[in-house]
Design a protein that fits this description.
Radius of gyration: 17 Å
CATH superfamily: Glutaredoxin
GO molecular function: isomerase activity
Domain Thioredoxin: 35-171
Shape: globular
Number of helices: 9
Mean pLDDT: 87
CATH class: Alpha Beta
Keywords: Isomerase, Signal
Distance between the termini: 48 Å
Signal peptide: 1-24
Structural class: alpha+beta
Number of domains: 1
Oligomer: single chain
Strand order of the largest sheet: 1-6-5-3-4-2
Largest sheet: 6 strands, mixed
CATH topology: Glutaredoxin
Protein name: Protein-disulfide isomerase
Length: 230
């Protein structure tokens, strides 16, 4: 994909951190929840407007658990190592549980290559729908090495999708706006690390681990929020 199709300056313009763990200081600890390592998990309270805005994002990939009682949204970057570890773990948990709707928001803040890959994903979503985009995302997030536009297009072609049409759609200016909307909302929420998550009315910064996530899911089912003791 040609460099003029990049969303120029997107990383610097957002003010989001490029990599690494969640912030240890300055975070609002709205709920008292701990990660699998025993440390307190940085988390933020989300207003109803922000929660609705997440669900209204263009190109949102959303699972289809028929009897879902909890929705979990991961904000990720294809070139984030922790995102690559978290995504299959969470998919396995969601499949085992059967009542978690797992959704994904692409916030490509780590490099221009991440922007390329994200635009191919959004193009797949526009042309072939959410189910195909979910299958594409599931495969691309597991690939080793740097995720680029070229590698994303190779994957789309390997899945039997029309490469020229997807490449043309990925270069459309409308996708720049979609990506800006994704990153802008992450910034508005206060996410400064990838991955980050929305569960119920909480924004969780960083990946707290499988057990911690399932504890939050259980709490939401019990009392409607990620920590019933707060």
């Amino acid at each position: 994909m040609h460099r003029r199709s990049f969303l120029a300056g997107i990383v610097g313009a957002t003010g989001l951190a490029l990599t690494g763990p969640a912030r240890a200081q300055g975070a609002d600890y709205w709920y008292t929840v701990r990660g699998d390592d025993g440390g307190q998990v940085p988390n933020l309270h989300l207003s109803a407007d922000l929660m609705n805005a997440v669900q209204g994002l263009p190109g949102l990939i959303s699972g289809s658990a028929a009897d879902a009682t909890v929705t979990m949204v991961e904000f990720f970057d294809y070139n984030c190592p922790t995102c690559r570890r978290a995504a299959p773990e969470l998919r396995a948990l969601a499949a085992e549980d059967g009542r978690i709707r797992l959704s994904f928001v692409n916030i490509p803040v780590l490099s221009p290559f991440s922007v390329e890959a994200a635009k191919v994903e959004l193009a797949v979503h526009r042309l072939h729908g959410g189910a195909t985009a979910e299958a594409f995302q599931k495969k691309l997030i597991l690939q080793k090495g740097v995720a680029t536009g070229a590698r994303a297009l190779d994957l789309a072609a390997a899945m039997g999708l029309p490469r020229p049409a997807i490449e043309a759609a990925a270069a459309a200016p409308a996708l720049d706006k979609d990506i800006a909307a994704h990153i802008g909302l992450a910034d508005q929420i206060g996410f400064d690390a990838t991955p980050s998550f929305v569960i119920s009315d909480a924004g969780i910064i960083g990946y707290p681990g499988q057990n911690a996530i399932m504890g939050m899911v259980g709490a939401v089912r019990k009392c409607g929020v990620i920590d019933c003791t707060s």
